[in-house]
Fold Bifunctional protein FolD.
Amino acid sequence: MPTILDGKATSKALQDQIAEETAAFVAQGGKKPHLAAILVGEDGASQTYVNHKVKACERVGFSSTLKRFPADITEEALLEEVEAINANDDIDGLIVQLPLPKHINVTKVTDRIRPEKDVDGFHPINVGRMTLGQPAYISATPFGIMKLLERYEVETSGKHCVVIGRSDIVGRPMSILLSQKGNPGDCTVTICHSRTKNLKEMTLQADIVVAALGIPEFLKGDMVKEGATVIDVGITRVEDASKKSGFRLVGDVDYAAVAPKSEFITPVPGGVGPMTIASLLYNTMQSAKKAVYSV
Ligand SMILES: Nc1nc(=O)c2c([nH]1)NC[C@@H]1CN(c3ccc(C(=O)N[C@@H](CCC(=O)O)C(=O)O)cc3)C=[N+]21
């Protein structure tokens, strides 16, 4: 049976650590970390995630501000809100919850966030610095996965890692982090996507598979080799009348078929998702401490 990479417990342990560090920082006269989140529209999943983030802030002793706007807010008005937070010295970190409505240019918005407050690590300056191995805010999901591999001492050096998905916020940064020098790191990385030919041939060679393509239960049992480490980034809500919420969360991995073959595996829920939250808090604390950018 595989070892389950328990993201929920690991996130909690990290949050306890962040709470301790925050208390010590504040006791020494430091400023209480303050995270601002912008939420546009009424998307149910987005509301849930943002609420999780705000609650997590409370838990570790941060201040938080949630700014909600209707789905028809103009791009210009949204950019002004970003500018206002950029200029607010009390706020250390700003996230604009994605996805945004179609009439808003996402890149324009995330590029407008000051890199020093971009705790999501989406700004080109942070992506560039991360890529070069310089101090940066690292995108929360890949960063959380690195922390999870570290916590369970998953051997990564020299391993072949296949990342499925090339998104700017998960697949691409994940491939870069895993190929960088260090532990975790030092992997040989292959990045696959919707145009990849013979995907199964690729995944069968993988010591570590990261499934981040957003198709429920895509990775089947016959696509992974015996003893692989499997990281499931997918989180899709599938209708389920038997649940109180009316839905259940399904990952990109066919867990029942893949788990018996794997050495390490992340569950959904309780795997990568909670680690994303811990990483965001970590980045916000770094910002309050001016540990990444000195200004
Ligand atoms: N600007 C921005 N930054 C993000 O980091 C960002 C975003 N937009 N948009 C959406 C995605 C998704 N995301 C998740 C965070 C936590 C869980 C999480 O805590 N999941 C729990 C369960 C959550 C539930 O109950 O629905 C789990 O997997 O166990 C999942 C997904 C952050 N994202």
Q: What stands out?
A: The pocket of 5,10-Methenyltetrahydrofolate is lined by residues 48-49, 52, 95-98, 120, 140, 235, 249, 268-270, 273-274, 276-277 (CB under 6 Å). The first helix runs from residue 7 to 27. The radius of gyration is 19 Å. The chain has a mean pLDDT of 97.
